[in-house]
Design goal:
Blueprint lengths: L37 H25 L14 H25 L9 H17 L5 H14 L3 H16 L1 H14 L13 H17 L6 H6 L5 H29 L1 H27 L7 H12 L13 H12 L4 H17 L2 H21 L29 H7 L2
Length: 410
Amino acid sequence: MGDCSVWRGSPTGNFPGVSPEDPANGGSRFADMPIFTTRRLVQTIVAVFLLLGAIYFLFPKIVGLGNALDRLDEADPVWIAVAIGFNVLAYATYIALFKAVVGGDALRLTWGETYEINMAGVAGTLLFSAGGAGGIAVTYWALRKAGMRRRDVARRMVAFVSLHYIFYPIALIVFGILLRTGVMNGKSSVELTIIPAAVAGALLLIGILVTLIPPDAERRLARFAHTERSRHFLENLGKVPATLGEGFRFAFGLFAHPKKGGLAVLGAAGFWAFSIGVLWASFHAFGVQVPLAVVVQGFFLGMVANLFPLAPAGVGAVDAGMIGAFVLFGIPEETVFPAVLIFRLVAFWMPIPPGIFAFFQLRHTVHRWEQEGLPIDRGGRATSDLEPGVGPLEGSGQLESSRGEAYYKK
């Protein structure tokens, strides 16, 4: 087995299995991703301010805590600077994760292009919640424009998302058990420790079972067809579990082989560690010492609310979930409200302006790709030794034109 950075690619030019009109080959003239339309942005901004007002102004007054923002002027600017530093590191490791799983030699993205795709995706994730669906949509669009085939994009995105979130259930299990057993300080009630750990364990088990889905699921399902139409339907139906299986196996392969997937694993772990560091520093900004295990457990329990699809950036849902989690852990409400607000401002709102700016940069980059006709192989059939080619997905040779070499020497 060679190094994980060794990939097999398809010949230069248009990509096999993709029609000339397909966006992967630049056939459609600069088709804009509609996620950042003016109407949607205005709707999001209005919803954000309404939800922020309800969470941080109205609710504290109802429960007798006064205005949660009254204590913001008490925050230590040094600790806020520390929180900002942690946030910069969090997104740097996030970009490294993407580069390791999707970019690199597989797609031959430059670091600038990788930054634009990721920050635009981050803005989509924060502005349009539902577990990151907005960011996935932006990233999918960019990778298709870069020349990757649909199935390759799908399985790489599955690998990226699954590896990114694998530390989520692992942390809930580890810190839930450590809290419950008293190894680490903090409230150890069953509903805050064992139940979340059990749910996280079930999710990990489901992920492991997904890796067992055979790569030829389409062919196996097609055996049950009695007509040509039903065969075609079953083959298309089988692509979904097959792609999930391929993506999960690739992610688990990276996780299980640190020498080959070290950058990806460090990127995934680093993102969560530095994000939790932002929250930790936010509490310290108000002079509150929260046990590490409680910070970690409260962070992940609160972030579950990000799955709520109707809250842009999880506003309201994540805020309420995180505030509720720390209150249940026994942290004083008058401290939790401003600390969570600082955390949300640093970790969620600060990246949005550069993310939107990166999206418009990405549109120009995509336009350049289309004008230059994707001068070299952008990874239409990229596979690695941890992600063996399957049937029509298997690569065949690697050709690079002199024009392509010149493109990456710019």
